[in-house]
Amino acid sequence: MAKRRETMSNLPKLPELLHRKIYKTGQTRGADDDVIYQNRVSRNSTVLIPLNEWKHIHAFGHIDFDNGYIVLLPLGLQRESELRQLNLTLGENCLYFYETRQEWELYNPSKRQWHFATSRIAPLGGQYVARIPATTAREDGGKINLGFTDTKSKGAGIRWYEYASASTIEQCRLQLEAIYWHCFDAEEAVIKAGMSQNNARTRQQRILQKCKETGLLDYEKLIQARILNSAHQTVCPLCLEPISGKGFMTRIAQAEGREIPDLTITEVSLFHIVELRSGEFNHRPYNLGWGHHHCNVVAKDAGIMPTLIWLKSLLDRNLKNGVKIPAPPKDQ
Ligand SMILES: [Zn+2]
């Protein structure tokens, strides 16, 4: 491991925007202040697992999480014996999660001498965590956020299906950089962003070599997954248009009034071929490509094929209703 790091750190540096874009693939998405999730942290952070989903995970046997897990129990009486059968111990690897004012009143933690939790690693320092939204319906209706609220380490953990181990994160970063180097203008784009041609070639060669040594960059799988086309060029997994390396290094024009403070949003974004959803670990090398930001927004929740079916029905219906759709510009 140490040897590999040394080899990687000797490589010529990528332009900053490209480097950050690849680096950030190892982090979770942003989270609001009032939710239980951590904001943009490593995908190998402590995972939060709802009790119902834990029952399935537990049935499949032991899963190693780099930084452990916390099972979130719904309010209501969980029998000690049931928890024991599921290998759960309150305050060690599970917590009650208060989400509504009604739960707070019915099962008030002070009546049970419970404390809010303070640690993501066992012992958790308490038995519960609360994120109850404010209500204007009553005078004492302020929000109740307790446990993991420190500015520096807000949030109890990450969504468990966003999880990837440190080694998977590294593999994904390596393969995603290799996919960048398959853009039709990859070299031109990094040179334009300040890298010398020599450095660009050295880095590209070493990254592709590294992928081969670690069993990555299986072209058949990448084509199958719509990450590369048959000419081994990087394409957007939804629209299949070849992706320009320049899209990794330009900031996207943001719709007026909807500016997002993070100015590093570029035209190209990380694309999960099978979307991240509960029940599966989908942050893995052959499920990740680079796509247009806009295509990603469209396909994100439904997935690629359902989105294509929807787009087709939308076009068909327009054509059936006599709408004349002009041909797209030539270079599309
Ligand atoms: Zn696209």
Task: Write up this protein.
The chain is an alpha/beta fold. The model has no long low-confidence stretch (mean pLDDT 89). It has helices at 2-9, 16-23, 51-59, 80-85, 101-106, 166-180, 186-192, 197-213, 219-224, 293-299, 304-320, and strands at 47-50, 69-73, 94-98, 128-132, 144-146, 158-159, 268-272, 288-292. The two termini are 44 Å apart. It folds into two domains: 46-156, no CATH class; 166-319, no CATH class. Bound molecules: zinc ion. Zinc ion (ZN) binds at residues 236, 238-239, 241, 291-292, 295.
Helix content: 25-40%
- Which structural class fits the helix and strand makeup? alpha/beta
Shape field: globular
Number of helices: 11
The Rg value, from CA coordinates, equals 23 Å
Which cofactor or ligand species appear?
zinc ion
Contiguous runs where pLDDT drops below 50 for at least 5 residues: none
**Mean of pLDDT:** 89
Q: How many distinct beta strands?
A: 8
Strand order of the largest sheet: 5-4-3-2-1-6
Q: What fraction of residues sit in β-strands?
A: 5-15%
In whole angstroms, how far apart are the ends?
44 Å
Number of domains: 2
Sheet with the most strands? 6 strands, mixed
* N-to-C SSE string, H for helix and E for strand: HHEHEHEHEEEHHHHEEHH
